[in-house]
Give the backbone structure.
Amino acid sequence: MIDPNNRHGGPRLVVTCKTANKVQFFDAATLTTTGEIDMPASTHEMVLSADGSAVYASVYGGGIFGRNANPDRHVALIDLEAQAVARMIDVGADIAPHGVMLDRDGMLWCTAEIGNAALVIDTETGHVTSIDTGKAAHWLAISHATDKVFASCKTSDFVTVIDRTKRVATDRLPIPDLAEGLCVTPDGGTLFVCAHRTPTLYVFDAGSGTLRKAITIAGGEGKPNQLKRVRVSPDGRFVCVSSLLDNHAAIFEAASLTQIASIATRKAPMGFGFAADGRTAWLCCHDDAVVLEFDLQSGKVNRDFATASGCEYVIAY
């Protein structure tokens, strides 16, 4: 079964441009713009729908983490063929939706930053179940192999572990350097968590919660207390980490956990997307409004293209 959160890419790209309040579309071969949508508020992250015809996009609202003076309460369903918002899902309160993931039952999971919760949204009925995460959750990762959901309580010293079926928090994984971005391998067996204070990548067994290894991210040691994100390529071969203040990205070989590349990026690297060829990836550089196209095996940047301001997240479909 295809992991709905680790899809192989396609010939088109969709990008959130959060400070411009836009979602833009591009041809992956030519990198030319093919369309854009004006969004009602700052839109941050996306996940493909189960059939791949749409994306769910979190409408976060104004401000940034910890200083969101005008939070929103919606997740947009965007029709990729029509390049239009098909529906706005109201999550029930002004809680600044951010991280979004889809589980194998078709339920949409979303972080509720201001509500200190993870939400489970029935996309057919709109019914929302709220799960207390203890602190402000910013990102999510789902392991179907272990039937667990992991919520990164950004700038808190733990990741909340949730039983996906029972929809209750069951444990906390300690992150002494404060928890940032996180992801799960496509096979569901390994959880990666970035530290906030240090250039450290924590590697956990997703089933037992045992810490396997803590890895120093070479080249990303410049500035502490910064936003970091991590993604695994859909084939499970590569682990990519971005460090926003260092203008840096790193690539690890997933099997050996060896860092194989260090990339100097444009300003404020954030979200990754992956092509179908298993070699090519994209990286949004938020402050420069540019997306880099790079080779996963070497880290070489081959091309780039401009976006509207504040590009944060990219999906190839």
Notes: The mean pLDDT is 96. DSSP finds no helices and 28 strands in the chain.
